[in-house]
Specification:
By secondary structure, the protein is mainly beta. The chain contains 2 helices and 51 strands. The longest helix has 39 residues. It is rod-shaped, with a radius of gyration of 68 Å.
């Protein structure tokens, strides 16, 4: 931005005629006046300038008088009327003249005034001023009535011809308006408002007249002294608002013009702006100042600035003026949306209805308008081989998260979603956040019984000897719940215990133990119903039947097992199948003994051969070898020592030690009496 000074000159046209202040002038002249006597000074005014201004005067008639056109120091033209031919009052006591003022325009314009002259008797002395030129000073805004200066003139005549009165000449009479003169004393005083800024000096013509018609004139030059009565004026020449926040330092914001119509130091002005803003002011031309940016603007910190211009002059006292302008800072997209947190944690209950809103995220953009309009998107990723958008969706405007499908806690416990917040600027800016969605469990799964295993074809029975002590471990119910938390807290209890219960189940561990000694009154077969219940709201439960046999001998057990049925009785062929099964087991047992003895003899002979041949002896143990200390390799609860006789009906089963639990299984329909027999040393597990 550059500044240039332009001067416009207005050309004048001749649209004003010369004008006299009065339409008629009356004069008195002594008949003794000598030729060449000046009787009148007069001037007309013409508002035009140059050629169109006042150029000269004419007088009619010119029998006794003639005129001289002169130029005042201010450049204006005035006329002096002189006596050309002596007067004779006896011939003509009054005369009438016409004075005409002409300009130089085309067509020429004129103005005239009538001069009436009364011829008086002789007065041979004229008033004389003590000075040719009087000079004085007056302070502007001086109070009315204040004395400016005093002039004086003398007349040597006696009587009325020697009495002098003072008057302002009609020359430039409009400038004498602020002043008044005392016609008797010649004191000039202030009569109006004086303003240095309008007129810096006044040139007055004062006439002294005696009573005989003689007169003299003098010049009074009055200089106006300036006072500091005008404050500076600030004008806003150029102004840019709003201004972009990325404007470089040194960008022009405003240009102002400062004026003070006073003079000297009263008119010298210094201009400044308020501090602590990123703007500076510099002077480019006289009375012109430029406001520039000074540093980087940031709309997010300050969206607008108030710049206060202060102009102070150097007068005494100082006068100042303030002017405030408001500059707004326009936004650019220089801020990305910012999430309240970099990571969020949300939760939703399983079995939720699809489409439900369960959480909402929000990002704030410090920009404005379109640059701050934030949209939300899912960053595409995969979870369990599926796109994450098949699980979660987000509202682009509000940031609300919606479940696309119903969640199952047992399949999905935690899901991480990456979200992008993007503004509407160009180019757009964005930021990311992570939402960790935790699936909350509901009690939608009942407990599952792992042990004892329930089947429709067989009944599982636990064997308890009648000599069992109090607290004897009969069995243990093992159950799980795929839910979590308190929904998976399981408790165990017996369903409808008898009046004098023999067993109890641990509420927390599911262990079934005896709570008293077994008596003869207790039935051999005992059927316990265990209820497994979780801690959910509402709770869910499962039941399992545990069959217990109270017996000390094997035939007693076999005789009672025929009664463990599921809604039907065994047939009479059960004994036959039991005998057949025992026979097969006996044959297998004897065959195993023969094989074992043969192997032992073979190994003994081999070791002797090795010993005699002085070769190193490497002991050999068959796989799955079980020692006879009773620890065994069986996986069940109890081991038993079996002593078989030729009559399987009378064979005894002897309880050895509770190394592991023993399981007795009887087929409900009796078709498969002996299902397995595992021998390990002297410990054998019987499964029927």
């Amino acid at each position: 931005m550059h500044l240039h000074s332009i001067v416009v000159e207005i050309l004048d046209v001749n649209d004003n005629a010369p004008v006299f202040k009065e339409d008629e002038i009356q004069l008195e002249i002594l008949e003794s006046a000598l030729p060449g006597t000046r009787i009148l000074q007069e001037s007309a005014t013409d508002a035009d300038v140059g050629v169109n201004a006042l150029q000269g005067y004419t007088l009619f008639p010119t029998d006794n008088f003639n005129i001289k056109t002169k130029t005042s120091p201010s450049g204006s033209k005035y006329v002096e009327v002189y006596l050309h031919v002596p007067l004779d009052r006896e011939k003509e006591d009054t005369l009438t003249l016409t004075l005409t003022a002409l300009d130089g325009g085309n067509p020429q314009k004129s103005g005239s005034v009538k001069i009436s002259i009364v011829v008086l008797d002789t007065n041979d002395n004229v008033p004389v001023f003590t000075q040719l030129i009087y000079k004085a000073e007056v302070v502007e805004n001086a109070a009315r009535g204040s004395m400016v200066t005093e002039i004086s003139a003398t007349d040597a005549d006696q009587g009325s011809y020697g009495q002098v009165t003072y008057h302002f000449s009609r020359l430039l009479d409009e400038k004498s308006e602020p002043f008044a003169i005392d016609e008797h004393t010649g004191m000039i005083t202030v009569a109006g408002d004086i303003d240095y800024e309008k007129n810096r000096n006044y040139e007055l013509t004062v006439q002294a007249k005696d009573q005989g018609g003689h007169m003299d004139s003098t010049k009074v030059i009055i200089d106006v002294i300036d006072v500091n009565d005008n404050a500076p004026v600030i004008a806003l020449t150029s102004f840019s608002s709003p201004i972009s926040e990325d404007s470089p330092s040194g960008t022009t914001v405003a240009i102002i013009n400062v004026k003070d119509v006073d003079s000297g130091n009263n008119g010298k002005v210094e201009c400044s702006i308020n501090k602590n803003i990123p703007f500076i002011i510099q002077s480019s031309l006289k009375n012109y100042y430029t406001v520039l940016t000074d540093g980087k603007l940031d709309r997010e910190k300050n969206s607008e600035y108030n710049i206060t211009f202060t102009a102070i002059d150097k007068g005494e006292p100082h006068l100042s003026v303030n002017k405030t302008v408001n500059i707004k800072v326009s936004d650019i997209n220089d801020n990305a949306p910012v999430f309240e947190q970099s990571s969020y944690s949300a939760s939703i209950r399983e079995n939720n209805p699809p489409g439900i809103s369960f959480y909402s995220v929000s990002a704030h953009d410090m920009d404005s308008n379109q640059n701050a309009r934030t949209s939300y998107f899912l960053i595409e990723s995969e979870f369990s081989g599926n796109p994450v958008s098949s699980y979660i969706s987000i509202n682009a405007d509000s940031g609300a998260l919606h479940a696309v499908r119903a969640f199952d806690y047992e399949q999905t416990k935690v899901l991480e979603v990456h979200i992008k917040a993007q503004d509407g600027g160009s180019p757009p800016l964005s930021s990311n956040a992570t939402v960790r969605v935790v699936i909350l469990d509901e009690n939608d799964n009942a407990p599952q019984i792992l042990y004892p295993v329930q089947s429709s074809g067989s009944v599982v029975a636990e064997i308890v000897p009648r000599s069992a002590d109090v607290g004897y471990l009969v069995s243990k119910v093992v159950a799980v719940d795929v839910d979590s938390g308190q929904n998976a807290w399981l408790s165990y209890k017996l369903h409808k215990p008898t009046d004098r219960p023999l067993f109890e189940v641990g509420a927390q561990n599911g262990e079934i133990r005896t709570i008293r000694q077994v008596t003869d009154k207790d039935a051999v077969k005992q059927k316990l119903t265990v209820v497994v219940e979780d801690n959910g709201q509402p709770s869910r439960s499962a039941t399992v039947n545990v069959n217990v046999a109270l017996a000390d001998s094997f035939p007693e057990i076999l005789s009672e097992f025929t009664d463990f049925t599921h809604d039907k009785d065994y047939n009479d062929n059960l004994t036959f199948y039991l005998v057949l099964a025992l026979a097969v087991v006996s044959i297998l047992f004897i065959s195993s003994l023969v094989v074992i003895i043969s192997v032992k003899i073979y190994r003994w002979r081999q070791s002797r051969v090795l010993f005699q041949s002085n070769l190193p002896v490497i002991p050999y143990y068959p796989p799955h070898y079980a020692d006879t200390t009773g620890t065994g390799t069986l996986k069940h609860v109890y081991n038993y020592e079996v002593c078989m006789t030729t009559d399987s009906r009378k064979s005894d089963i002897k309880y050895l030690r509770p190394v592991s639990q023993s399981l007795l299984s009887v087929d409900c329909d009796g078709t498969d009496t002996l299902t397995s027999a595992q021998k390990d040393g002297y410990s054998t597990l019987l499964s029927f």
